[in-house]
Amino acid sequence: xxxxxxLAACLAGATALAGCGEKDAxxxxxxxxxxxxxxxxxxxxxxxxxxxxxxxxVSYFSRALKENPERIDHQRGLALSxxxxxxxxxxxxxxxxxxxxxxxxxDDNVQYADALIRAGNWAKAEAVLDAVPPxxxxxxxYRLEAIVADSKEEWQRADSFYETAVGLTTRPAGVLNNWxxxxxxxxxxxxxxxxxxxxxxxxxxxxxxxxxxVMARGAQRDYTLPVIPxxxxxxxxxxxxxxxxxxKQGDVETGKGLLRDAIETHPQHFEAAVRSLRALEASG
Length: 284
Fold this sequence. Notes:
Layout: H1 2-50, H2 54-67, H3 72-84, H4 88-99, H5 106-118, H6 122-130, H7 139-151, H8 155-166, H9 173-186, H10 189-202, H11 207-219, H12 232-248, H13 252-265, H14 271-282
Helix pairs in contact: 2-3, 3-4, 4-5, 5-6, 5-7, 6-7, 7-8, 7-9, 9-10, 9-11, 10-11, 11-12, 12-13, 13-14
Pfam families: TPR_16
Signal peptide: 1-18
Organism: Sulfitobacter aestuarii
């Protein structure tokens, strides 16, 4: 007679255990989904900051901030996206807000200074950079220090900052090009030529450096194209730049010859070169 009671007790115990197991399982599943959501959100943030349309990213991070205004990663995302969208004044304001949030880091001030420079607020950018601790030695910090020094024609400081920045990155082509352009504006043409060549060696696709290199050579009245990687269209464009440099320096006949070479070299109709040549020929 005791067997049914014992069986009932066992079944009741089993049900209770099953209930506890079900609660634990649900909690585990909820935690797992929470972790997945964090990973998914992180991936989505990365996508928004890299491949998404910048204005789409601005909308995304604006919505995210309304839901979680304390999240500094969303505030950074908004600031970065505004700068990517070339809304530099808004970007500077967003970076300023980032620097005031708990968890702000020295690099947030560096990014704030970058946005200020893009917005044309050089004095404020310099002040923000000056407030960054000297122990914060990063590529972006020294790149901006160099640009600010350049703007003030503090050439020795600019060169020192450029040199430091180059040593702090594995992709120095852009900063080498900037440094070369600084030398070009100072009239230090051989130094500029060397730096542009270094930039091209680091990144053979950097057409800006190729164009600047041609200008540096032309400024020294060297009207031959350098031996660098270039396709046919680039060759034509560089010949055009060289022609304009020659004409600017009074070497008009040389410039005409280079324009003709550019027109013949271009795989399509080169309207800008044709216009320049016609204008020269019309003026005698």
